[in-house]
């Protein structure tokens, strides 16, 4: 049909050659809309029912063509020529061995007072004394290379491993507080329970500084060493002060009892020594008494006799305490 031929020719011209657009349409803004109307009219001739209202709508908005938009955008651009002053061109010459051979490297000069940082791979290794001093400054005297108990922490020979207990159970070090320890007795005791018998060891330990302070402790453990250590700790909790004269003897006689045990103490002249036996002698020597007489009465139990000795010592008083209570000078006590 003629309408179909016209539409095909028009679309080919418009789509292939946009410059012919102005020959067919009076205004460029309505080119697409009129083309659409003509296309619809050509297609409507083939249909059975023709609707004139659907061909061109009164409310159809004009569509801007791409060619007009492109021409308007391009026409708004202005070309600016760059000046020679603003442009900077750098030319790199080809590497010439003769030119590069004459180039001298000139490093920057260090400012005054500049100290270069040390290198880790230079210098001699630190000695053990320097390492110990550094550890002492950082962590205290415990890391100074030698522990507080006199053992070198850097020595790891067989003797040190054996004494320190490395590889086995840890060994507790003795407490250095000026007190000496003396073991009075170690016995094996048994506790009968529902499942059988429990075997343990009981230790009696006396501690003293030989300056008038003494204590008695008793404890149980599954091992002898642990029992002795626990007894020493218990003895330090029960320290008693023993009154003595300048001749290292008692100021007066005294008696004390604990359970069935009874102990009698008497002062002695200089040069006599400690005349006593069993636990009484150990308690007096650890207290620092050099001249005294002692007697155990009623029982041979070591723990009861040691505690009875402490009870007798606690009943003693110094001459100055008695004179202060009576309100008289010490010289009048011997009248």
TrEMBL record:
Q: Does the keyword Thylakoid apply?
A: no
Q: Which UniProt keywords apply?
A: Ribonucleoprotein, Ribosomal protein, RNA-binding, rRNA-binding
Q: Where are the transmembrane segments?
A: none
The reply to whether Ribosomal protein figures as a keyword in the UniProt entry is yes
Q: Which InterPro entries match?
A: Ribosomal_Su5_D2-typ_SF, Ribosomal_uS5, Ribosomal_uS5_bac-type, Ribosomal_uS5_C, Ribosomal_uS5_N, Ribosomal_uS5_N_CS, Ribsml_uS5_D2-typ_fold_subgr
Query: What Gene Ontology terms for biological process does this UniProt record contain?
Result: ribosome biogenesis; translation
Recall the GO molecular function terms of this protein's record. Answer: mRNA binding; rRNA binding; structural constituent of ribosome
| Cellular component terms per the entry's GO annotation | mitochondrial small ribosomal subunit
S5 DRBM domain residues: 179-242
**What's the short name of a Pfam family annotated to this entry?**
Ribosomal_S5_C
**Hey, which family's this protein in?**
Belongs to the universal ribosomal protein uS5 family.
Q: Report the protein name in the record.
A: Small ribosomal subunit protein uS5c
